[in-house]
Amino acid sequence: MSESEKEKQTEEILDEVANDEVIEDVADEAIDEEPVKSEVEVLQEKLDEMEDKFLRASAEIANITTRNRNEREQLQKYRSQDLAKKLFTSVDNLERAMAIEVHDEQAASLKKGVEMVLESLRNAFKEEGIEEILAKGQPFDPTLHQAVQTIPATDEFPADTVVEVLQKGYKLHDRVLRPTMVIVSQ
After folding, report:
1. Residues near 84 by Cβ (< 8 Å), separated by ≥ 6?
2. What DSSP string runs through 70-110?
3. What pLDDT does residue 8 have?
4. What letter does residue 153 receive in the DSSP assignment?
C-alpha cells in the first residue's frame, strides 16, 4: 500500500470512529433526557389543575352559603332570648304581686290590672316560643333544673324528684334560658 492509500484508510477509520462517537453521544443524550412533553399535554395538565381549583372553590362557596344560612336561621330562632332574659325578673315580680291576697275593691281592681299585664307578657313569651319549664313532681334533670336544696325522700316524693319550685325556669325552643331553681328529694 502506498502512503496516500494508508492516509486515506486512516482518515476513513478516523471518520468512522468520530461518527461512532457522535452517534454514541447523541444516544447518551437521548437516554439521559426525559421524554419531552408535547404542548397539548402541558396544556391539558394546566386545564386539569385549574378545573380542580374551580371545583374546590365552588365547594367552599357552597359550604359558606350553607353555614351562613344556618347561622341566620339560628339567629332568627333565638332572636328574642336576650329580651326574655331581661323580662324574667319583671314576670317574677308580677307573679309575686298576684300571690298577695287583697281585701278591698281598689286593691282587687289593681290586682286585675297586674293580672292583665302578666297575661300579656305570658302570651308574648308563648308567641316567641318561650315556655315555662315544668318542674314540680318531675324527675330532677340537671340540664333543666338547678337544685339549691335537698330534702329526704318520702313516699310522695321518691329520690331525685323535684319537691318544690323556688324560681320558675324558661326555655326557648330547645335552649334553656334560665333553669328552674328547685328543692329536690334525695
Report:
1. 125, 128, 130, 170, 172, 177
2. HHHHHHHHTTTHHHHHHHHHHHHHHHHHHHS---SHHHHHH
3. 75
4. -
Say which residue the cell 453521544 belongs to.
25
Q: In 3-state terms, what secondary structure has residue 35?
A: coil
| CB of 158 closer than 8 Å to CB of 138 | no
Q: Using CB atoms within 10 Å of the CB of residue 164, give its burial: 0 to 12 exposed, 13 to 18 middle, 19+ buried.
A: middle
Please give the grid coordinates belonging to residue 176.
334553656
Q: Any long-range contacts for 85-93 (C-beta under 8 Å, 24+ apart)?
A: 85/177, 85/178, 87/121, 87/125, 88/170, 88/177, 88/178, 90/121, 91/118, 91/121, 91/122, 91/125, 91/168, 92/167, 92/168
Residue 168 · residue 186 · CB < 8 Å: no
pLDDT confidence band for 116 (50 / 70 / 90):
very high
Predicted TM-score of the model (pTM):
0.64
A 10 A CB-CB count for 17 gives 10
CA–CA separation, 47 vs 44, rounded Å?
5
